[in-house]
Amino acid sequence: MHNAYFDFAAPGNEPVMSFAPGSPERAALKKQLAAFKSQEMDIPMYIGGKEVRTGNTVDIRPPHEIKHKLGHFHQGTASHVTDAINAALKARQQWADTPWEHRAGIFLKAAELLATKYRAHTNAATMLGQSKNAYQAEIDSACELIDFLRFNVHYLTEIYRQQPVSSPGVHNRLEYRPLEGFVLAVTPFNFSAIGGNLPTSAAMCGNVVVWKPANTQVYHASFFMKVLMEAGLPDGVINLVYADGPTIGDVCFAHPDFAGIHFTGSTGVFQTMWKTIGNNIAKYKTYPRIVGETGGKDFVMVHQSADVDTVVTALARGAFEFQGQKCSAASRAYLPSNIADEIKSKLAATLKTMKMGTTEDFSNFINAVIDERSFDKITSYIDNAKKADGVEIIAGGNYSKTEGYFIEPTVIATNDPTYVTMCEEIFGPVLTVYTYDAAKYEETLELVDRTSTYALTGSIIAQDRYAVELATRKLVNAAGNFYINDKPTGAVVGQQPFGGARASGTNDKAGSQLNLYRWLSARTVKETLVPPADYRYPFLQEA
């Protein structure tokens, strides 16, 4: 069942294509973008391997070109969620019994299809559906998703190989069973790789899955589902449904076979899910595994010894790549008084060089935020900052949703380290900076640690090694992913396992063995080779 003799060795990370002018990958991507835009997709749900259409459709439009229709998807109801659960449970036993090397082969083939045949497709779908530029799409929907599939196969092989010792006359072994029931995967809009990893990591371990993607990521999710099917994923192992969150929760969390949730999304939603699961705990056959990565209020702490250009680059990339819509995006920065003015001046000048527009124009660094709801929420913070005392917008601050949901990269400077944009997650292209007295470095580290309920990512930028060591120690609980002299984004599978604690999630580290253990239930098997035939121990014998 779990054959450790098949050694799926650690892969290298998938190389990132450059899309330089004149390159074949650039031409292929341009061609695929045009092809996707020339057709309207009719996107079904996939339940038990079958396409399911309800007629209740929701339009899909590029966030940067809202007048263009890419297609529509068919919205499901509670009955479709129930059908998905039933299809998963029907498939469960055969999938759990499938030898590991055969399960692994499916996901390795899916990775190879993404790396070759469908590379332009996966990138184009992400660029159009989620408004990512070519580079952001490439490192996400191609490289990271490929890495998740390949590295997880390797990590699971390593887990299966971990076996107990056996004493003379006894053979011990561990069996790593899938969970007893189904796993619910709820995935966000911002990373196609997360959309692919959350259901497949659980399925790889022998589990069956009900997968609910964000509506704003359905365009790529449906494409990836077809890749998995082409790779040989059996019917019912992963079931893709497009129902609203409350409906999903009402059905799944009340089901006795609910065995776990793999979630990425907002803290509020995750806490509500946890509470509901707790209230229903007596209904379940097993205690469900609860794995979630939620929000962040990620920091960049700058020391007085820092190189100014290094800081400016880290802030420009960390805060504004993919419009700040990364859980790890730099959102608050602490600048020392000796170099703060120079940093702010150079950062404002840098942002003026960033072009903003559609993803099809490869010269655009900034594209659109995901939808109107997000646009309205982000711009409300900007509008309030324009009116607040002790607060100044030093770069950006303009926005428009006439053609798409465009917001300029915006930098807010505040005199109050507890101002709302220093504390609350915004999830958009807004960075708030606070200038502190350079002589009060250690006190400011304590301020950084206590300001936010989140603890996802953060970075320290300094040339003074003692300052780096102090920050690393003082901020030990402030970030699950901590960066030295770099931006706080860009974790790579196999290199920086990703996840945070506090209000940022359960810190189960996607892209590592730690996450996969959550989808396994170990069974210890002891076999006595020559069983005793008498109950009496030697000490019972008379002298």
TrEMBL record:
Please write the reaction equations for the catalytic activity of this protein. Answer: L-glutamate 5-semialdehyde + NAD(+) + H2O = L-glutamate + NADH + 2 H(+)
The answer, when asked if Oxidoreductase is one of the entry's keywords, is yes
Biological processes per GO annotation: L-proline catabolic process to L-glutamate
Which parts of the sequence belong to the Aldehyde dehydrogenase domain? 56-521
Tell me the keywords, alphabetical order. NAD, Oxidoreductase, Proline metabolism
The protein's gene is named: pruA
Protein name (Swiss-Prot/TrEMBL): L-glutamate gamma-semialdehyde dehydrogenase
Q: What is its EC number?
A: 1.2.1.88
Q: Which family does it belong to?
A: Belongs to the aldehyde dehydrogenase family.
What Gene Ontology terms describe where this protein resides (cellular component)?
cytoplasmic side of plasma membrane
GO molecular function annotation: L-glutamate gamma-semialdehyde dehydrogenase activity; proline dehydrogenase activity
Identify the catalytic residues: E293
InterPro entries recorded: Ald_DH/histidinol_DH, Ald_DH_C, Ald_DH_CS_CYS, Ald_DH_CS_GLU, Ald_DH_N, Aldehyde_DH_dom, P5CDH/ALDH4A1, Proline_metab_enzyme
Q: In which pathway does it act?
A: Amino-acid degradation; L-proline degradation into L-glutamate; L-glutamate from L-proline: step 2/2
Q: What class of enzyme is it?
A: oxidoreductase
- What is the organism field in this record? Chitinophaga lutea
Highest lineage ranks of the organism? Bacteria, Pseudomonadati, Bacteroidota, Chitinophagia, Chitinophagales
